[in-house]
């Protein structure tokens, strides 16, 4: 990985939320060819738009835009080279569930860079994006990234560093290593806010009534505009043309089994109940409209879950129950419940607003009041606290060792990519 590529990675990871106005026209010309893979100018400019949503800069010069596009293109070429090699490994299998989980995490991370969801949506409009297009583009990127990550992880799994290499690394880079900021180690108990049977039944009955109107000759576009709970309602539920793998699996399994002109019965996905009309069907893609009846939990459902969380907290405070035992019994976070709900270390200034507020002023061992996020209702336990300080070999050996291993891994990967470019066709056309 060359210096420009590393800079591009740093830029993508470090810059915090803000706005950047870029008047770039998306034209589907080829920016680069890597083996049998192509990188379109529109794909490159989409990555630039994403970067624009993260950078704390409002105006840039044309030269700065060109420089950023060049850096991003370098990274995209490197990613394509890795993907070309990874696709030769038939043992790599990425499931739709893994893609959906990673997609949700990526979108939440992007949303978390803004003060509110409304600000996030407004910035998307500024950049000429909508959530459906963003998810469709992200889904392809996320799947490819998972393939690359799996391949790189296996490729670099044997990279180790000796204690001498760690000491040399620290000696060379100690003045430029990031300081240890104020940090907190957290565990959580997560309760899911589920829609009650009444909420589900209400959405289903509304879907059945709209289907009856359609069967009696009602106009799909008009009924979508009136009844759909989706952002596509204003366009009559129009999803446009999309390939398989663009949307989530349970929705696609249904619509790709339908024929042109067909209107489905109401069917359920995790979003709610859908009625779908197929406008056009091609061999590899489909044009559909849908009416969505969301089954979001009601305010009563949320209150009931909050009351349960508060009851569990009182049991812990009154020494009537152990936090880790309640995590095993009640938490819906299957990954962390195996470790008593442990989430790990977080830089306090980087915590989500709800977590930061919930843990403010807590000491080690304290339990937060129930706090709500998009994932559900959390009880947070402070496991440990660290004050800001410079890293030292004595206190932070493992962390410094990890930095040293990353640098060594970067050097190995850079060398390997150089060899790959000797036999994989690369043509930069931008």
Short description:
Helix content is 48%, strand content 16%. The protein is α+β, with helices and mostly antiparallel strands.
Topology:
Blueprint (H helix, E strand, L loop, with lengths): L2 H12 L15 E5 L2 E4 H12 L9 H25 L9 H16 L5 H10 L4 H25 L7 H11 L9 E9 L5 H19 L4 H8 L10 E6 L5 H7 L11 E3 L2 E10 L3 E10 L4 H19 L5 H8 L11 E6 L5 H7 L11 E3 L2 E11 L6 H28 L5 E3 L2
Antiparallel strand pairs: 1-2, 1-11, 3-8, 3-10, 4-7, 5-6, 6-7, 9-10
What does this 3D model show about the protein?
The structure is a single chain. It contains 14 helices and eleven strands. With 430 residues, the chain is of the alpha+beta class. It folds into three domains: 3-160 and 407-428, Triger factor/SurA peptide-binding fold; 183-193 and 298-386, Chitinase A, domain 3 (Roll), CATH 3.10.50; 197-294, Chitinase A, domain 3 (Roll). Strands 8-3-10-9 form a four-stranded antiparallel β-sheet, sandwiched between helices. Helix 1 packs across helix 3.
């Amino acid at each position: 990985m060359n210096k420009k590529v590393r800079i591009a990675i740093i830029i993508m990871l470090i810059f915090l939320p803000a706005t950047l106005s870029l008047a770039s026209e998306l034209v589907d010309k080829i920016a680069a060819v890597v083996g049998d893979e192509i990188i379109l100018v529109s794909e490159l400019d989409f990555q630039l738009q994403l970067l624009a949503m993260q950078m704390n800069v409002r105006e840039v010069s044309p030269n700065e835009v060109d420089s950023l596009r060049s850096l991003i293109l370098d990274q995209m070429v490197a990613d394509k080279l890795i993907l070309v090699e990874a696709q030769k490994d038939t043992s790599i299998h990425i499931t739709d569930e893994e893609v959906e989980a990673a997609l949700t995490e990526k979108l939440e991370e992007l949303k978390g860079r803004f003060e509110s969801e409304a600000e996030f949506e407004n910035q998307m409009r500024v950049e000429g994006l909508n959530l459906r297009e963003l998810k469709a583009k992200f889904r392809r990127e996320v799947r490819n990234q998972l393939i690359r990550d799996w391949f790189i992880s296996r490729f670099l799994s044997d990279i180790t560093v000796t204690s001498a290499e760690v000491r040399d690394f620290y000696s060379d880079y100690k003045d430029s290593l990031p300081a240890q900021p104020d940090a907190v180690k957290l565990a959580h108990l997560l309760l899911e806010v589920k829609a009650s049977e009444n909420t589900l039944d209400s959405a289903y009955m509304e879907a059945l009534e709209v289907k009856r109107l359609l069967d009696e000759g009602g106009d799909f576009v008009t009924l979508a505009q009136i009844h759909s709970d989706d952002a596509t309602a204003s366009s009559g539920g129009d999803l446009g043309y999309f390939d398989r793998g663009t949307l989530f699996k349970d929705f696609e399994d249904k619509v790709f089994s339908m024929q042109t002109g067909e209107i489905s019965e109401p069917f359920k996905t995790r979003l709610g109940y859908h009625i779908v009309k197929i406008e056009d069907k091609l061999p590899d893609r489909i044009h559909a409209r849908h009416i969505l009846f969301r089954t979001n939990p009601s305010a009563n459902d949320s209150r009931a879950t909050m009351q349960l969380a508060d009851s569990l907290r009182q049991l812990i405070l009154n020494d009537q129950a152990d936090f880790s035992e309640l995590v095993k019994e009640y938490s819906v976070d299957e990954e962390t419940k195996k470790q008593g709900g442990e989430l790990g270390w977080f830089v306090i200034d980087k915590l989500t607003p709800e977590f930061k507020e919930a843990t403010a002023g807590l000491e080690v061992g304290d339990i937060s009041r129930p706090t709500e996020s998009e994932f559900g209702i959390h009880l947070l336990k402070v496991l440990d606290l660290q004050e800001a300080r410079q890293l030292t070999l004595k206190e932070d050996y493992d962390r410094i060792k990890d930095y040293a291993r990353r640098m060594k891994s970067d050097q190995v990967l850079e060398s390997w990519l150089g060899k790959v470019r000797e036999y994989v066709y690369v043509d930069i056309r931008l």
